[in-house]
Amino acid sequence: MKRIQILILDDDKIQHLLLQKRLSLIEPKPELHCFDNPMNAIDFLKYHSIDLILLDLHLPEMEGWEIINEIKKIGTKGRVFVLSGSVDPEDRNRIADDPFIQGHFEKPLSQLDLESMLSQ
Predict the structure, then answer these.
(1) Which of the ends of the chain has fewer CB neighbours closer than 10 A, N or C?
(2) pTM of the full structure
(3) Does domain 5-119 have CATH number 3.40.50.11810?
(4) Is the pLDDT of residue 82 over 90?
(5) Does pLDDT of 86 surpass 80?
(6) Could you tell me the residue ranges of all domains in the chain?
(7) How is the chain classified by DSSP, letter by letter?
(8) Cβ atoms within 10 A of the Cβ of 77, count?
């Protein structure tokens, strides 16, 4: 069975560890690709097929919406979910209005949220 490919883009390495731990409980185990730099993640997406993208909107190097536009340009088929500690009302509206984004989850992501995301 093909392992699901998940890209995590978050500047907080603790979030990487938490997500890795939670995802390790899922069978079959997904293959994780963790990035804290948006340009590295975007370059990776150009050459790899990803099933699920977990994206923090608030990164120091690049604004989250700019990253989403770059991902759209690549034409990835992966489902995109926004992860954030806090999302202002304007971002919530943009997330809800953008059909490219499958949903928004607050950090830290629970096991139930992860399973919900994977089942969509």
Answers:
(1) N
(2) 0.92
(3) no
(4) yes
(5) no
(6) 5-119
(7) -PPPEEEEE-S-HHHHHHHHHHHTTSSSPPEEEEESSHHHHHHHHHHS--SEEEEESB-SSSBHHHHHHHHHHHT--SEEEEEES---HHHHHHHHH-TTEEEEEESSPPHHHHHHHHH-
(8) 8
- Cβ atoms 3, 47 nearer than 8 A: no
- pLDDT(116) > 90: no
Q: How far apart are the first and last CA of the chain?
A: 18
Longest dimension (CA), the chain: 40
Q: Work out the angle at residue 92's Cα, subtended by the Cα atoms of residues 99 and 71, and round it to the nearest 5 degrees.
A: 45
pLDDT, mean over the chain: 92
Q: Which residue type occupies 50?
A: I
